[in-house]
Fold this protein.
Amino acid sequence: MKEVSRFPAPVGDLGWFSTAANKEHVFSDPAALATDYDFVVVGAGFGGVNAAFRLAENRPDASIALLDALPVGMGDSGRNAGFMIDVPHVTVGDPKADLEHHKWRCRLNTIVINRMREIKNRHNLQVDWRESGKHLAAREKRFLPNLDNLARFLDTIGKDSRTFERAELAETLGTDYYVRSLFTPGTVLINPAEVVRGLASALPRNVQVFERTPVLQVLEGATPSVRLVNGKTLRAGKVILTVSAFINHFGIPQSGRLYGVNSFGAFTRELNDKELANFRNIEPWGCTAAHAAGTTVRYTASKRIFVRNGFSFSTHQCTTPERVHDARGKLRRAFVARFPSLEHVNFEYVYGGMIPLTLNTQSLFGEVARNVFAGTVGDGLGLTRSSMLGLYLADMVCGIDSEELRYLSSTNAPSWCPPEPFRTIGANVRLAWDEYQAGGEI
């Protein structure tokens, strides 16, 4: 496998990390790195942390290193909207999908959410974790059939949902922007940076977590090794890569089949008592849009409004400060449209992140080189999906069979993707068209 030429980097002011209560937690000193480990996990997001937990359960006497180029929680795992979604993310069109496939998705999502909840409770982690459910909301009447389609679909697979009409929805959210929503109760709303950092802090003693430890190269073989940017080399029995679309830079055979789309998020400053008048007796909530290109909104436990929108193609799996600056205007318009009485409230944090995708929405999952394994989400559902991949990659490398592992192994294979420059050109045209179609949902 080749040397890595690009590394993840924070872009903008990362609101989730900045407001995390555990951002000062100290992990292992890189000076304590050993030269030999039974397992090395590269990427300490939700996929990597869940892989490390499961490896430690499977092999309690094994030595395990979990590495991240950034502080834990500063990667894409800490830059999303913080929805741990249990139901299939079908939001547009008539969802004529394979019912068994989506039943499996629900089952696997529930498994990983329950696992993380159990870990949080067992270790008494004081993190922002709310069993709040989520709203899928529409502003324009032309998108109401999307909610109806999803409601019928969820009923078919036995999942609960409830419709909120405009008046009740306004009382629930503190904004009358939307005409209807479909509420699903099983989604957990979290501060993703705080939760992944908290989970990493609770890993067993045989797992060492190293922040700010970027990997330069992974060498496959009978005894694979991991070369670090700081000059050290770690030998391992098995290596697991949970590095999102950055997997392209490691030179695996599937390189080019995964890509990233940039999205941008913003947090207001903390609202004062007067500004909170419209939110009296309203619990923190989360709302996704009835069109895939629409704006995601949250009223957070920290008394802030969070908005996310503005998609652009991530040719090199990264974004730029200029793109974050340009995204601010669209984020402001979305915020003011929903909360006109708060127009005077400034954004304290604005940042960019990446959503990993594949053309056929299937994840990369399995052995990508001799004794090197990888898992990368292909459908944008990062929190539950990447957690799931990490969990079952750990079982795969330990030779632990299960019905769930067999399902994941048989159904995940990213499809071919056009080469550059056609990929970027085509993606940007498609993203622009989607945003135009979304209309008031943005």
The first strand starts at residue 36 and ends at 42.
